[in-house]
């Protein structure tokens, strides 16, 4: 008996004295939550300061199933797990069974019930007073302009890191520095005052300002929507670039997705085709072949070629796209060959250039390698290995077959022709700033190399202007504006036969304007348009014209001096130009709402600027000054609502 008593005393002594500190530490650890605090991710702005992507505070909802079920079994909680699951599910709008399955994991002391729950909903859950239900701070990435440039911006995963697009490329800048929090909780997951806790605050990420302009981007998105709906093409992409600097002004793809609900999308729908699509460029590539030959002095713009409509190289026969209808082109000059997009002429040019020189210029124009644009997902393109290239390969490569390019590669190369011969690295982020607005980094135009001389670039530009004014690119003609451009129609390879398809094509068009001082270069690419028409000149050229017209008007670029304008932009002449009326809202807007502004009499640039500032989307039709808008001014609508704006020419003063 004495021995038993001695053992009990010894055990109590060990528990209360010797092991007391250790047991206390274990007890604290069991009711202490260590949490990494995700920092607020930086905001992404367009060139005009409009928010394209930002983070908002949300909560993670978690549970302690072990404690909760113990309290329920001891009648300390009156609700059953089924009732608790239903109440929580009703608030966060999910399936009750999903919550119940997690609450029934009674062997666990912690399990996540839901991520990125709005704070207002977590407040509702907290009011239920359910022990063992708690919340952690999180951030949710939101995109106020919905699908606008979705594939360009990319997405952010549940951990707060960018995994696609700009969000991924600049993740280190945007993410910030995580913080740390350690604190004790009671069984109801409530903070216990005056208990051990440690907080290291997170540091928010830096902000990005893009070169991309929301107004130009709206034009891009509108043209893409119209293209998909009217041509039923499988895919489409458009890039707008400042050819003098490499700055990206607009970029978009179809299919697309809603970045606010990206989990509902397919990976293919999120692809930024502008940087990841590889394709045979077809006749748009003739610009580069011609420029190389002009630079080497092998040809001149007026040199004549024999074009009977076909060219035999060994056992292979090269024909023109219009050989079946037109037959021989006779003896066209190089310029005339470009105007009619002759494969026969360009094949002869490429053969004269020779394989060594041809590949030198391929590399000089940046083909076969990434441009280095600051967006995740860029592909290399693909060149036929030089040591394996045969005469027939050289001939077909000269007019855009065999080699694969990406849209960004091609437009970057063609912009070198537009700007006088210099290849610039394309970029889409203008600057990085701290949350306080301090400059971290200012990106600048980066000249890679001089590919051709200014003389050669000018010669090719003049030829491309004639392609638009009097050739296959005539549907891109803009009265009063000198446009240089080139059509492209490329047969796709049939995956089953390995040969070229007779029904699937890539239709494209590239252009820049104004010719004398280019402000914008554009590439429009349609993958597998459906219907009888598949030529780039008929499908892509008019859509390029629409985009160029809108962009040039937005930039305030005047038409040629010898073209009389019927649009008055003088605010001092109210009799000619209508002016906006004082705005009278129909009611006070709520949070997330905005009053539709009066756009009467504004130019396209002014209207786009005002609508963007009010976080409203828009559809533009016509040209001139605003004559009609839906919804009407003064209406209160949700931010992101689309406003239809009609422009028309101003009536002459009486």
Question: Care to give the gist of this entry?
Answer:
The protein has 654 residues and is of the alpha+beta class. The chain contains 22 helices and 24 strands.
> In terms of structural class, how would the helical and strand content be classed?
alpha+beta
Q: Name the poorly predicted regions.
A: 23-30, 559-576
Mean pLDDT: 87
**Fraction of residues in helix:** 25-40%
Portion of residues in beta strands equals: 15-25%
What value does the Rg take, in angstroms?
Answer: 32 Å
Overall shape: it is elongated
Termini separation comes to 122 Å
Number of helices: 22
The total of beta strands comes to: 24
Largest β-sheet summary: 7 strands, mixed
Describe the protein.
By secondary structure, the chain is α+β, with helices and mostly antiparallel strands. It has 22 helices and 24 strands. The strands form seven sheets. Strands 2, 3, 4, 5, 8, 14 and 15 form a seven-stranded mixed beta sheet that branches. It is elongated and about 100 Å long. About 4% of the residues have low confidence.
